[in-house]
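Annotated sample (chain length 332).
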Amino acid sequence: MSLVSALNIKQSFRKRFADWVTRHHRVVARETSLNRRRLYILPTSYGLYFASLLILMLLAAMNYSNSMAFMLTFLLAGIGHNAMWYTHRNLLNLQITKGNCAPVHAGDDASFKLTIYNPTAKPRHAIVLQWEDHEYTCTDIPAGESVHVDLKVHASKRGRLYPGRFKIYTRFPLGMFQAWSWVNFDMSCLVYPSPVQSSHSPNVSASGEDGEEQRGEGRDDYNGMRSYQASDSPRHIAWKVAARHEDLLTKQFSGQTNTEIWLDWQQLQDLDIEQRLSILCHWILQMRTQQQRFGMRIPGFTAEPAMGEEHEQRCLLALALYGNHDDQQIIA
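Output written by the structure step:
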């Protein structure tokens, strides 16, 4: 059996065991307390080695009827028993409160905000929070104080990320026992598509005073420069600047025409759904960098040209929840 297969079997066993243990646990709305009925404790591999050593020492003491060997064995057994008690107490009565999670892009790690409060007069040490088998967060909690921690959860795809249960555990003080509990908060994170560059470019148009759409830019007064787009006229490219820099820049003019940029689903007909969403997401971020007004059209959603964080977040929300019929009313 390969190492990968062994690890998969181990992870599958852990998940089945966690499912069985937490089958009667309910989803927590906002806050939970780790009482005795929610805590579990078992010896670690070091604890099992220690117990095996004690058994061997006890057999040797009985074989030779050596009182000093008996005393050392019972002394070490007492230390192990106290270690078990301290490990369990290190988690007992901790209070955990959920916070918010800022939106992320697919492929990044979502950071769920949690607050752990220690209501007792004893500090808690080496408290670990972990989601599945991913990166963990370890912290100490002073007596009577709260600590804010970030629970990292990998966002593999766009939409709403529901982390489900996570584990909080400790092996303090000697590492011979592990006490733990599972917590399942009712929380989620919005995951935008992963931005992807493309040879396609947004649809740029200009509308004149009479309201008719015209292609081009205003030509009355110079109004700065912006990044080059495929639809720009070669006459507006700042060739002198391009000779000194790698990126092409386009001269902007303010006049009687108002530029409108449309991020249109129909421009990407040769691509699949996820590729379209990723390219549209990249365009939105590009518009933010260039401080451009833009509109967006995707099936079931249209946003008129505008600027600002609220407009940008609304468009990104539409991309993240595209195809999720349960959330259509949110982005309508």
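Annotation: The radius of gyration is 30 Å.
Annotation: The longest strand covers residues 109-117.
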